[in-house]
Amino acid sequence: MAGCWLNPLQYVKEVAKCIVTEALWPPVKRHIDYWWCFDGNVQGLRDEIGRLEREMSNRNQKIDEARLRAEIPTTDVQNWSNEGSQKLEEATRILQGCDDLKLWNVIPRYSVGKSAKETAEGISKLREEGNSIRIADPAPPASMVPISHASTLEFQSRKSMEEGIIKSLKDGNVRMIAICGAGGVGKTTMARRIKDRAIKEKLFDEVVFVVVSQQTDELKIQNEIAEILDLGLSEKTTLDGRAHKLRTRLMDSKKKLIIFDDVWKSFEPEDIGVPYGLGGCKIILTSRLKDVCEEMEADKVIEVQVLDKKEAWTLFREKSGDRVDDLYLRPIAEEVVAECKGLPIALATVGKALKNRRIETWKDALLQLRRANPKNIPLVLKDVYRNLKLSYDYLEDENEKYLFLLCCLFPEDYNIRIEDLALLSFGLDMFERINNIEEGRNRTHNLLESLRSRFLLMTGSEEDEVKMHDVVRDVAIFIGSEENKGFLNVSSMELSSKDSSRNCNWMSADISIANAKLPVGDFPNFVS
Fold first, then answer.
1. How many helices (H) does the chain have, and how many strands (E)?
2. Strands, E, within 225-275: which ranges?
3. 395-502 sits in which CATH class?
4. Residue 334: φ, ψ to 5°
């Protein structure tokens, strides 16, 4: 039993041996190796650099292949690549000048050898971590991808409307919201902003944005919704069969918002497979026809108005550049903005067209806008006039078209008495099978109500008056000059006196007026 015990001296020796061999010697040896095994440490770092470069090259190739498949590289793989690049830069810096170090350069060899060894170990660890990193994720569905906006401007008049729409989307009693207004007033822009907010604020699990346009093609609408939802619909299936499949997809447990943009005709969402209301989708539609919004029984109808003067200038300045602040150009720019009358599409189009142009071009553009003949201002005819002309072309009643053009004969910002329009229309024999003034007055009221619901006319200062937005008036004058609508073509004459108005015989000639201003108060004598 006594032989099992070590004497104290032997015990101390064993403990000291353990301390030296197991605790003290390994770190001492490691530090010595930084100097003594310098060449091996450096070569080890070079080997690791080569392995990392090959690994990063392969990884980058896989990332490119993923992007071609419309997949999105993960954050982890991007961080791994960034860290790999930093490691390579660090290793390159360590290896600079290391070949010149000799055995007797103890301190430099020790320092470089230590850095080489530790960096090589770090690279090796990084490569091992890379093996478990996922390269890419599938792209998110189109229904959850926000739409980027070139402009980040926020206007108070629009922001309050947006907040109201967002509030309505959260209201369980609201199934459908309609955004209506004149062409080019910003309905689509607002709808896209609502989509982005709905996605960012996670109000819905899926958001679908579909452009309907003038021809309501139900098959096309179904296909676009199905594509966004990654749902396959067979072209051979009947409309009802496709609607059933789409309805089944939309009635799952996820919350959905469907946005129908640019609606011209009323249609039943249920017929194409879009359930709404209790347990169904929320719907937003945009239209320049208020009647359509009412026919589709929208719970909320939001009318988008033109921008106020301050907002109009802000938008125009963003599109045309801060050069408009120059003293010599500012007055002209302000007059150009005034001609656009707060209509966003006009402000944006004209602003972009005049950006970086000479002052002579600005003056000429102002003249063309005033004369409602902007043929030499890039994109104005295409993007502004043609856009607004669509509303005119969509009028099915020729009497509506004639009455609309008749309103453009009045001066800018003029409050047109409905009674005067009724008398003019009756005197010009516009209506068929109308036997007296009372019948003509009723028909005039009916047609004007239709024109107002299409935002081609506005209510005037009084209930018995109507007005024309100046840009809409310019479009009407342009239409009158392009089409033979039975108006005298007067391009520069201003009828300013009462006598001159009385001398105009409105029924004796085939007339087409392009830019005439009628006097306020009196009207031409009618031929009996």
1. 20, 10
2. 256-263
3. mainly alpha
4. -65, -35
Tokens 């021809």: give the residue. 215
Residue 492 burial class via C-beta count within 10 angstroms: exposed 0-12, middle 13-18, buried 19 and up: exposed
Q: Do 418 and 464 contact (CB within 8 A), yes or no?
A: yes
230 to 247, 251, 299, 341: CA distances (angstroms): 14, 15, 29, 43
Total count of residues recorded for the chain = 528
- Specify the DSSP class assigned to residue 272: G
CA distance 385 to 319: 19
How does strand 282-287 pair with strand 416-417?
A: unpaired
Exposed, middle or buried, 477 (CB in 10 Å: 0-12/13-18/19+)? buried
Q: So what's the pLDDT on residue 412?
A: 82
For 168, the enclosing helix (H) or strand (E) is helix 156-169
Sheet hosting strand 206-213, strand order edge to edge = 206-213, 256-263, 282-287, 176-180, 300-303
Q: How far is CA 526 from CA 32, 38, 465, in A?
A: 116, 111, 22
DSSP E strands in 386-452: the ranges are: 416-417
Q: Residue 129's pLDDT is what?
A: 84
* Stretches in the chain below the pLDDT threshold 70: 1-39, 70, 97-108, 110, 112, 139-152, 236, 278-279, 483-528
- Per residue in 92-131, pLDDT (tens digit) is 777 776 666 555 555 667 676 777 777 888 888 888 888 8
Between 3.30.720.10, 3.30.70.330, 3.40.50.1980, 3.40.50.300, what CATH number should domain 143-303 receive?
3.40.50.300
Give the per-residue pLDDT at 379. 74
Report domain extents, the chain.
Answer: 11-137, 143-303, 309-385, 395-502
Q: Give the Å distances, CA to CA, from 71 to 209, 247, 353, 359, 398.
A: 22, 28, 38, 49, 53
Q: Which helix (H) or strand (E) holds 335?
A: helix 330-340
Residue 305 and residue 157 in contact, taking contact as beta carbons nearer than 8 Å: yes
Inter-residue contact 73 to 67 (CB < 8 Å)? yes
Q: Is 176 left (phi over 0), alpha (psi -120 to 50) or beta?
A: beta
For β-strands 282-287 and 176-180, DSSP reports them as parallel
The whole-number pLDDT of residue 26 equals 58
Burial level of 64, CB count in 10 A (0-12/13-18/19+)? exposed
29 phi/psi in degrees, rounded to 5: -65, -40
pTM, full prediction: 0.65
| Inter-CA distances, 204 with 170, 283, 510, Å | 10, 12, 58
